[in-house]
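To: structure subgroup
Subject: Chain for Friday's discussion

All,

I'm putting the inputs and outputs inline so they're searchable in the archive.
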Amino acid sequence: MLRIAVTLLIILVFRIASYIPIPLFNTELLSGDFGSGFLAILNSYSGQALARFSIFALGISPYITASIAVQLLQTVLPSLKEWSKQGEAGKQKSAKLTRYMAIALAFAQALLLILGVGSPLQQGVNQSVWVYLYMALTVTAGSAITIWLADLITAKGVGNGTSIMIVTGMATSLPIMITTLGNKYLGANFTWGNLGIYSIIMLLNIFILLAVIYIYVAKRKIPIQHANRQGKTDSNIPIKINSAGVLPVIFASTLMSIPLTIVELSSTSTGLKTWINNIFSSSQPLGFILYIVLIVIFSFFYTFMSVNPSDMADNLSKQDAYIPGIRPGEETKNFIARLLFKVTVIGTTFIVLLAALPILTTWIFGFTAAEASAIQIGGTSLLIIVGVAVETTQQIEAAANQDQYTGLF
């Protein structure tokens, strides 16, 4: 209960602080119009703090980007790859590098935000270099505090802090999606046909919710036997159908948002902006294909990084255990790798379909850019929120069971 209370208190602090405006910023001219584009996705990550130009405008997004960069670098740089073999010490080094990189990215993104979107709004206000630098440093500090709060949830609360902070922000996009749909189909344009379309979209989101819950609890059990002095004992190793969770969706969205955000905040030519938008916006055919490809890549990448067949085979040998009909060692490793690949194909197919459904819905029903953005963010938010909720619930149940077992001794 204490961990749950700590988590709720941190979420409350984050939400209250997200309404604190950037000092010296001219909020009177702020329209808060981030209804379309990938700035809307970043806005949803920060709980609408970006639209308010709050000190928490960037939220946790720089940390997500830094995490992607560090984990990709660990696959190509030998020095960083060595950290993965150093156990807890290696994890601490990776975490420290991720934080440093996140702060650097936060400062760069804050400057782009202030100079790109914020500059036209500073009419009649001191526009010196030092004022812009001060505002950028304030937003960077806000992002650093968000990262610290996420780490605090991981250490003292329940669930993964980064995921909880993302969900806290994205939960605000669901009412926006419902309101947007309500205004379109149940407002002045109400007809029985529009009511049917509204019902179909709501049922689609309920289907996403139920499908995510199913895919998270589904497991493929590998039977194993232990040879000991009392004879043979049977047990199993459960492998989740979707071991990567919602990380592939989060990382794919974040990675595609980087070039779009840069061109949206900079004075780039219209032709280049259109070209970048066609490639990296998931609402465009090419961008949609890239989005799906990235989800597939990240899904397999994180699955085989979190579930290592070689380590599993070694652990079985050390525990004097084996898979019936499979020889210990190399044959066991290959068997687990093949099974993990098949399971990941199923899990990735589910995640791809669920991530694609909101986008396909906007194409089928011909939504405007702002409406499409609200629907896509709402669908992605639902996917992430339910996934994190299931993971957090499982962690709470595991902690409760551990406390019960501890109380017996």
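Points worth raising on Friday:
The domain at 172-409 is CATH 1.10.3370.10 (Preprotein translocase SecY subunit).
The chain has two domains: 1-170, 172-409.

D.
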